[in-house]
Amino acid sequence: MKCPTCGCEKFYIKDTDDEYELYEFTAVNGKIEFDATPETQNIPEITAEIETFCDKCAWHGKFETLK
Ligand SMILES: [Zn+2]
Question: For residue 18, how far is its CA from the centre of ligand 1 (angstroms)?
Answer without folding.
Answer: 23
